[in-house]
Amino acid sequence: MRKIILEEHWDHPINREIAEEYFKRTKLRAFTYGGFHDDRKLKQVTAGIEEYRLKDMDAAGIDIQILSNGYPGIQGVRSAEEAVTKSKMINDALAEITHKHPTRFKGFATLPLQDPGAAADELERAVKELGFVGALINGHTNGEFLDEDKFRCVWERSIELGVPLYLHAFDPIPDQSHNLYKGYETLLGPPWSWNIDTATHAMRIIASGLFEELPDAKLILGHMGEFIPYMLARIDEGYMQTGGAKTWKIPREPSYYYRKNVYITTSGLWNPETLVCAVSALTAEHVLFSVDYPLADLDYGIEQVERTPISQEDKEKIYHKNAEKMFNI
């Protein structure tokens, strides 16, 4: 069965420079690929397209990876001017890979949201000129979130181009994380904070009314939806308890927009019981297969999906049909 995966990380050398400055400035714990102390993983993400990535894909039966620049990415940059310049360099370098291997790799654009107008233009360039299929954004950009009015132009451009925005996990705003995680820094990153913060970011987008205003917008969340699919009933109950449409900026319950505008991937979290819940909450049409390569193992991701007690038809949708439809591939 064909398999397409879309939260799969590739690292431009510029990202190492961004990361060094970012972690020094924020004093956050540096969760980097090198932090695994695994030389192979580092080479898989920074280089080795033929030596590592394609061989691993072939061995696991992966047909296509949609590549994106890694963490912290351009969201770790302070200067708008620097972000615009480096985004173009990263996207051009990624395009060299996708053009060299057009049947195996597609690309998600890096966007300099420090300058929303430039980000919208770069998204258009990346899609129309470079052949990319969307954009991946690493969480907040210097403490600003995608629900804010200044970013409407990016959402509008994504709709015009017919591509989704993928909201990837990112660190808390540094000044807001110190007390909450003080003494518990191990909770920063994948174990807890990334999921909590990304879920909150997504709920901000829903609560802002953006999907009511722009009903054709598409948002992708990784890690099986960042907790939200399993909390929809609770969220809707809270919506009604706090005034519903009278006090919120949305006339419908939050679950309506989540089920309509949000798509989730299995990246890094494919446990059968979780996938069963996701399909039950959202239907299989809103779940796409991903692995989080090279941080997670391709074979293990496939094994977990195969163990999940869902229909073969649903597995086909998750493995490839939903991605084919969304990305026209």
Explain what this protein looks like in three dimensions.
The chain is of the alpha/beta class. It has 14 helices and eight strands. It has a single domain, classed as Metal-dependent hydrolases (TIM Barrel), CATH 3.20.20.140. A five-stranded parallel beta sheet has the order 4-5-6-7-8. Helix 5 runs parallel beside helix 6. The longest helix has 21 residues. It is globular and about 55 Å long.
Set out the fold topology.
Layout: E1 4-10, H1 13-26, H2 39-46, H3 49-60, E2 64-69, H4 80-100, E3 105-107, H5 116-128, E4 135-138, H6 152-161, E5 165-168, H7 174-181, H8 193-207, H9 210-213, E6 219-221, H10 232-241, H11 254-261, E7 262-265, H12 272-282, E8 287-288, H13 298-307, H14 312-327
Parallel strand pairs: 1-2, 2-3, 4-5, 5-6, 6-7, 7-8
Categorize the overall geometry: globular
Q: How many β-strand stretches?
A: 8
Residue share in helix = 40-55%
**Which ranges are low-confidence, i.e. pLDDT below 50, for 5 or more consecutive residues?**
32-37
- Count of discrete alpha- or pi-helical segments spanning 4 or more residues: 14
Largest sheet: 5 strands, parallel
Structural class: alpha/beta
Strand content: 5-15%
What is the average of the pLDDT values?
Answer: 92
Please give the order of strands in the largest beta sheet: 4-5-6-7-8
Distance between the termini: 15 Å
Question: How large, in whole angstroms, is the Cα Rg?
Answer: 19 Å
- Find the CATH superfamily: Metal-dependent hydrolases
What is the H/E string? EHHHEHEHEHEHHHEHHEHEHH
CATH architecture level-2 label:
Alpha-Beta Barrel
Number of domains: 1
CATH topology: TIM Barrel
Kindly provide the name of the CATH class.
Answer: Alpha Beta
